[in-house]
Amino acid sequence: MHTHTLWAARVAAGTVLPDKRLSARLACLLETCAERPNDAIPHAAGSWGQAKGISRFLANQRVQPAALPQGLTSDTARQCLDQTTVLVVQDTTSLHLTGCHVLPELGPMGSGNLAQGVLLHSPLALTEQGAVLGVLGLQIWARPAGNAVGPEAKESGKGLQGIDQARQVVWETAWAAGAAAPPRLLHRMDREGDVSEVLQWVEEVGESAIIRCVQNRRVAAPLRLAHAAVRAQPVLGRVTITVPRSHGKPARTATVERRALTTTLRPDRATYPHAWPLTWTLVEVWEPNPASEHEALHWLLWTREPATTLTEVQEVVRKYPCRWPMEA
User: Fold this and answer.
1) What is the CATH number of the domain that holds 203?
2) 47 found inside a domain
3) DSSP output for 134-203
4) Alpha-carbon distance 190 to 213, whole Å?
5) Residue-range definition of the domain harbouring residue 234
6) What is the pLDDT of residue 46?
7) What is the CA radius of gyration of the chain?
8) Considering Cα of 214, then 219, then 225, then 228, what sign does the dihedral take?
9) What is the largest CA-CA distance in the chain?
10) β-pair partners for 278
11) What is the rounded CA–CA span in Å between residue 292 and residue 303?
């Protein structure tokens, strides 16, 4: 049996629907989309009858949208049980649906809010080697038009909810399977994840993370701000890398330095009265002497992974691939 067929059958079987015929239709829909992901439904279906069946399934009032991710996330979680460590990568995707007038739920997006669509935020599970296992949760919302009250909590709390979604489905699946312990989850986020609530929650639940640093936070060090404090640390190693061609600029080589600082973050109690000091490590990759026509490469990562030696720092960077290769 084809791999897509097996996957679609597993996901459909794990999705709670009120009718077996709906489960069979869901399996057909998933297999169709997996086989031809870039095609519109009428072209992917291959026939008018098949396309009509998919459309009826999507319009069926008995199919609750909240039920559809269940089989997908639980199937991903079962694959996670074969891993010792799972990378949980969070990011937000903009789904532009401008011109689709049959969907009143769409909201503004893009520069000038001229486009229409919805936002999708998902924790994606990967092996340590980078193989994709699947998604562990989904959050979908639209921004409000004009001055309407909108889901501000959704946008500010999507990182926290993504962590909770991943933890819940993996732990529940491990318990149901009788596993001795669930795999270790290593949460990976871009700059959207560099918020105090996320850093606190990762530490509170006892998990690990690698988060792109954007906030120059107060730290318990002679230099009170994180960016200056890590730059003052001794160089753990230098390496010459090849920077790929991009944005019309030719490929080049660059020599970067690597540093790390394990420190205590001191939250502003006036802004965060319920926060507490946190212990994290800041890893820096920096090009000190770029050619005059090039912008210096610079990468800052918050992590709770071990990062006191060059080998450990290299492993942190490997798990958060940059836009340019970081191998020696």
Assistant:
1) 3.90.350.10
2) yes
3) EES--EEE-PPSTT----HHHHHSHHHHHHHHHHHHHHHHHHHHT-SSPPEEEEEE-GGG-SHHHHHHHH
4) 8
5) 190-319
6) 85
7) 23
8) negative
9) 71
10) 265
11) 32
Enter the tokens of residue 203: 């530490």
Give the pTM.
0.89
Q: Are 124 and 135 a contacting pair, CB within 8 Å? A: yes
Tell how strand 85-96 and strand 107-109 pair up.
unpaired
- Tens digits of residue pLDDT in 205-262: 999 999 999 999 999 878 889 999 999 999 999 989 888 888 788 889 999 999 999 9
Query: Exposed/middle/buried for 176, CB within 10 Å: 0-12, 13-18, 19+?
Result: exposed
111 DSSP 8-state letter: G
Same domain for 173 and 200, yes or no, is no
Q: What is the pLDDT of residues 44-74, one digit of tens each?
A: 888 888 889 888 998 899 998 888 999 999 9
Question: Using 50, 70 and 90 to split pLDDT, how confident is the model at 327?
Answer: very low
One domain for residues 85 and 152: yes
User: How far apart (Å, rounded) are the C-alpha atoms in residues 132 and 270?
Assistant: 42
In a domain, 324, yes or no: no
Shared domain check, 225 and 258:
yes
Please check whether residues 213 and 286 belong to one and the same domain. yes
Share of the chain above pLDDT 70, in %: 94
Q: How many domains does the chain have?
A: 3
Q: Do 258 and 212 have their domain in common?
A: yes
Residue 209 covered by a domain: yes
Q: β-pairing, 139-141 with 184-189? A: unpaired
Mean pLDDT, the chain, whole residue set: 89
Does residue 328 have a pLDDT over 70?
no
Do residues 152 and 31 share a domain? Answer: no
Q: Do 43 and 88 fall within a single domain?
A: no
Tokens found for residue 36: 């031809």
d(CA 328, CA 323): 15
pLDDT at 324 over 90: no
- Based on the domain organization, do 105 and 43 belong to the same domain? no
